[in-house]
Amino acid sequence: MATVEVVAVGGGASPGSVELVPEVFEARVLPHLFHAEVRRQLAARRRGTHSTRNRSGVSGGGAKPYRQKGTGRARQGTIRAPQYAGGGRVFGPVPRDYAHKLPRKMRRAALRAALSLRQREGAVTVVDGFGLSEFKTRRVVEALAGLGLAGHLVLVVIPGPDVHLEVSARNLPKVSVLRVDGLNVYDVLRHERLILLRDALPRIESRLVAARGEAS
Known about the structure:
Layout: E1 2-7, E2 17-20, H1 22-25, H2 31-45, H3 104-120, E3 124-127, H4 137-146, E4 154-158, H5 163-168, E5 175-179, H6 185-190, E6 193-197, H7 201-208
Parallel strand pairs: 1-3, 3-6, 4-5, 4-6
Antiparallel strand pairs: 1-2
Helix pairs in contact: 2-3
């Protein structure tokens, strides 16, 4: 079981240390699960509203453009056929839902693997809290600089709603704030460094600790 020091935001003595549950932060790293879960997440985000008109959806062309025989040209039934300019499209995209399912065990295993990968890389920092009592983006920037994370892609994981922190970090292009309920593989892999609030650890562990018979 790995033990990490809790960092005090803004400097000062460390408020203690915490132990990271091996099932969550020392799990096997399985790249094929990363691919499957990220693909599922990105597919679910697609709106799927693309649409084109086939020949029945294009207006006009009710009559034959010319007679059937005697012209020396190929017979045609309508000027709205696909081979004409302005005609309908053949096999064009239609509105659809791209979302597909992935078993819950695979999703949990993928998230455990992503967190374990960041922990193995030394990219996980546990802090006691940001202590924001007002909306101040500058305070967040100063806190990240104090942690040596200025300029990095940083994901901050909080246990629950924290309006001051979430709004203050909103305008920082390289910083994202997620509640534990929204923690996902795509964002963990997309960011270089993770900042976990100490109070968020028990919720992460309770969410991801393997159920009976579930492989880690």
